[in-house]
Amino acid sequence: MSNQGLGSYFKFNSVNWDDIWNATGETVWMTVISMILVAIFGIILGLILFETKNKGGFWSHLINIVVSFLVNIFRSIPFIILIVLLLPFTKAIVHTIIGPEAALPSLIISATPFYARMIEADLREVDSGVIEAVRSMGANRWDVIWKVLLPESTPALIADGTVTAISLISYTAMAGAIGSGGLGQLAYIEGFESNNNTVTLVATIIILLFVLIIQFLGDKWAKRCDKRNL
Amino acid sequence: MIMIEFKNVSKIFKLKDKNLKAVQNVNLKINNGEIYGIIGYSGAGKSTLVRMLNGLETPTTGQILIGKHNISDLSTSQLRIQRKKIGMIFQHFNLLWSRTVLKNVALPLEIAGVSKEKRLQKARKLLSLVGLENRGNDYPSELSGGQKQRVGIARALANDPKILISDEATSALDPETTDDILDLLTDINKRLGITIILITHEMHAVRKVASKVAVMKAGRIVEKGSLIDIFTHPKNEVTKQFVNKEANGDEKELQSTLDNVIHSDPKNAIIRLIFNGSQSGDPVVSSISKKYQIQISIIQGNVKQTRNGAIGSLIIQLIGNHDEQEKVIEYLQKLQIETEVIYHE
Ligand SMILES: Nc1ncnc2c1ncn2[C@@H]1O[C@H](COP(=O)(O)OP(=O)(O)O)[C@@H](O)[C@H]1O
Ligand SMILES: [Mg+2]
Questions:
Q1: Which CATH number describes the domain made up of A23-229?
Q2: From the list A127, A138, A151, which residue is nearest B94 (CB)?
Q3: pTM of the full predicted structure?
Q4: Cβ A148–B96 below 8 Å, yes or no?
Q5: pLDDT tens digits for B16-29?
């Protein structure tokens, strides 16, 4: 480990900017695609958890137990171990274990339970009086989901989606360690293994910018949807 | 014509450690077009009773008839159709904050599958019925409590219901707004002929709009009848509490006045008379002083309007000797005037 003076952070002529932009593109791609799928699966699972909890009935109870169990298991496995654990599964569905596509299954499987639990809690916050009022109008279960549960929890869903998206960014960086591409891999291969601290610094700054932008946009969007305190 | 009938209805909630009897052996008939008040303290079972009416709860035993339909015979989808014929308003309004006022009012029609154009048109009409035609594009959070309840009322009327249930709809409002909303309900009852069930813990609301009233305590109806009867001849202890509270206004103030009077003049009895509009108070009082060796001092008197006439309340002190006081009390009781002895040596 030579070449470790502080000046090593600022040798910008040693940076291959094409590689940086490529890696940035891969990180964005992994985050966006996985977030879209996590949002869809998360909302579905969150609704299932909410709708089957304490509703009486054998099937509700069974579904709740099974889904809860799976969610708890996958939420508890550290991401870096989950990737390795899922290698055969990844290979079977995307036919490769390297590159951004190969990161998707692990990203989605690890972030969905996390988001689903938050969504369940968000739905629980919806005013039960409003649900009762809408049921008293003759609404069925789907009316309640589409017209009450989802619209009335939107700001919370967006805020928690923002948290989830930010976690996904850090997961994509970790996935870099086993060859997913993206800024994490660049920092690992170029920055760490080739001793190029400047690349590590640049990758860090770009990721930080992403996090800040997502947080900013998420906050704005959540606030815009919130008509509770006008 | 009978619109709603509860036949020996009970509701028991099975809790972990006990069975909670929320409603017990309720029998009640409500006529078409009537405003029926159901009064009781919190936890008496009022909400549970009306929730059974639109099938949000099912009775443990007994039957509920609406028109000719027995609610428990309806299938899930028939029940949803039945619910559309019953509008409901709530203490906390239960509007969707995520929708504009207009879209809140249109929601029941949206659920019923009415086309967008038609439902918005109807919603606008209903908003003008409740005096909020200019607020359709605002969100509920931009309205005052009274205005929110008006939106609630407009929403409850969207499906042209035959029955309107008001569950503590004025309990979160200040006295003036309460009266506005009660007037609106009376107006709707007259104009549209809708049967209204008014659930409340305030006698004031019942007194202003209802023509009949049932008093609930611990899941049971302990007393029911016409408003004037209940007011002028309350029998049950709970009913008396409600009536007195309403008749006397501020209880604490009255109590301290009474304490003062009793303290300075402990020999003379104090009684309360409640009479309806057709028996006025004055002739009774003057006849007492003519017939008996008694002078009368009025401590408090007032008259309250109901839909079916006035109700008066008079608190008087009987000044004279003990035997004469007794005779006056007997006389009043014979006259069938509701007489309560507040203080007697
Ligand atoms: N879903 C429920 N499960 C268990 N207990 C309930 C339920 N709903 C109401 N209760 C109980 O039934 C009783 C009557 O409640 P409620 O009908 O809400 O009274 P009110 O509307 O007169 O205040 C209360 O003791 C309440 O705690
Ligand atoms: Mg209640």
A1: 1.10.3720.10
A2: A127
A3: 0.88
A4: yes
A5: 899 999 999 999 99
